[in-house]
């Protein structure tokens, strides 16, 4: 089967995690993983990003499939349910907005920069070696620490479900996947309404 350039986007996901380990400001690049899926689903009304361009999904597929790190068991039905997926999306947004709030406080000067990465929204890992000071406001770095925490946490969750279940089990409840699916449903509903 012929490989395309987008079949190697797993390299980008892996590179992102490595770069953030050495310089936290690279975490800003992760915003592309937020905006590109949304833009594709809004414009095309499809989950093209999830199905073709998601480097993280590819990475899980590679590790769990080719390298045999997955038990290849079906994911439980409750994790596939709309209630769980939407609940996880809401929880994800709450954590994301909390991260934005902390960033705002640093920008406002009412809180000092926290040079730590929070894993699984609970464990604070010292990460000071990845920040060397810049010309930018400390709030820029605070956002990077927070955003890298989100990306690292979702990667760890994806790895756990990859090992326990099928390689791309993360894709079932991924917040971006849930959001793009909701956008696609709205887009298709609009098309049906316009056709009447």
Quick structural gist:
By secondary structure, the chain is mainly alpha-helical.
Task: Characterise this structure.
There is one protein chain. Helices cover 65% and strands 4% of the residues. With 196 residues, it is mostly helical. Strands 1-2 form a two-stranded antiparallel sheet. Helix 1 (10-22) packs across helix 4 and helix 4 (55-66) runs parallel beside helix 7 (138-164). The mean pLDDT is 93. It starts with 9 loop residues before the first helix and ends with a helix. The longest helix is centred in the middle third of the chain and has 27 residues, at 82-108.
Give short descriptive properties of this protein:
single chain, 196 residues, mainly alpha
Could you outline the blueprint of secondary structure elements for this entry?
Blueprint: H1 10-22, H2 32-44, H3 48-53, H4 55-66, H5 77-80, H6 82-108, E1 116-119, E2 123-126, H7 138-164, H8 170-173, H9 175-195
Antiparallel strand pairs: 1-2
């Amino acid at each position: 089967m012929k490989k395309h350039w987008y079949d190697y986007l797993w390299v980008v996901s892996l590179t992102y995690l490595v770069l953030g380990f050495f310089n936290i400001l690279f975490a800003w690049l992760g915003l592309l993983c937020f905006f590109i899926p949304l833009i594709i689903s809004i414009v095309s009304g499809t989950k093209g990003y999830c199905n073709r361009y998601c480097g993280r999904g590819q990475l899980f597929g590679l590790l769990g499939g080719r390298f045999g790190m997955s038990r290849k068991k079906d994911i439980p039905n409750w994790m596939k349910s709309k209630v769980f997926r939407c609940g996880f999306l809401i929880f994800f947004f709450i954590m994301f907005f909390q991260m934005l709030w902390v960033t705002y406080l640093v920008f406002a000067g009412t809180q000092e920069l926290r040079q730590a990465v929070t894993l699984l929204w609970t464990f604070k890992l010292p990460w000071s070696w990845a920040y060397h000071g810049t010309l930018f406001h400390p709030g820029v770095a605070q956002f990077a620490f927070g955003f890298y925490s989100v990306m690292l946490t979702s990667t760890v969750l994806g790895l756990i479900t990859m090992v326990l279940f099928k390689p791309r089990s993360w894709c079932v409840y991924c917040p971006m996947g849930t959001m793009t699916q909701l956008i696609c449903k709205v887009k298709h509903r609009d098309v049906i309404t316009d056709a009447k």
